[in-house]
């Protein structure tokens, strides 16, 4: 049976006539994401940060993001929410924001030493959560899932 659809003779896995929300690939991906996010939220609360703050720290420390705009895009969050999040992180001494001299519209975001120290702890936390939720999965199954998710993401960009 195709995920998200009841069995019929048609081969179209996205036939609206066969749609079953609770088995929909989109619904299941969303539920899995929410489950992982909740577990990460619980784990990082011991470090006195939120999941969103942890994600920002990881993005900055890995070089995946370096500006407020980068963070908004990578975290799929509106600029107002990112600004409020970064304000809280700046007050805690985890990040610094600076305007570029050549383009005052661009705000660079950098980790402070305290931010780097906290970011260094996060891979262990994230991996602990992933190991728990993916127990029983083989390395091959996890790589297949990664590959499939990359394809879904790539299909959105073209």
Automatic annotation (TrEMBL):
InterPro entries: HTH_MarR-typ (IPR000835), Tscrpt_reg_MarR-type_CS (IPR023187), WH-like_DNA-bd_sf (IPR036388), WH_DNA-bd_sf (IPR036390). Keywords: DNA-binding, Transcription, Transcription regulation. Residues 22-154 form the HTH marR-type domain. It comes from the Bacteria. SMART domains: HTH_MARR (SM00347). Pfam families: MarR. The keyword Transmembrane does not apply. This is Multiple antibiotic resistance protein MarR. It comes from Cupriavidus numazuensis. The lineage of its organism: Bacteria, Pseudomonadati, Pseudomonadota, Betaproteobacteria, Burkholderiales. The gene is marR.
């Amino acid at each position: 049976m195709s995920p998200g659809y009841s069995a019929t003779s048609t081969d179209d896995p996205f036939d609206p006539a066969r749609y079953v929300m609770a088995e929909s690939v989109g619904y299941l991906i969303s539920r899995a994401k929410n489950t992982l996010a909740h577990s990460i939220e619980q784990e990082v609360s011991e470090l006195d940060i939120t999941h969103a703050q942890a994600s920002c720290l990881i993005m900055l420390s890995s070089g995946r993001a370096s500006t407020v705009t980068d963070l908004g895009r990578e975290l799929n969050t509106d600029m107002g929410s990112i600004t409020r999040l970064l304000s809280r992180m700046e007050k805690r001494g985890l990040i610094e924001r600076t305007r570029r001299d050549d383009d005052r519209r661009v705000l660079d975001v950098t980790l402070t030493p305290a931010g780097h120290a906290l970011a260094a702890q996060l891979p262990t936390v994230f991996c602990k959560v992933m190991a728990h939720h993916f127990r029983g999965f083989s390395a091959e199954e996890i790589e297949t899932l990664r590959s499939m998710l990359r394809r879904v993401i790539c299909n959105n960009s073209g």
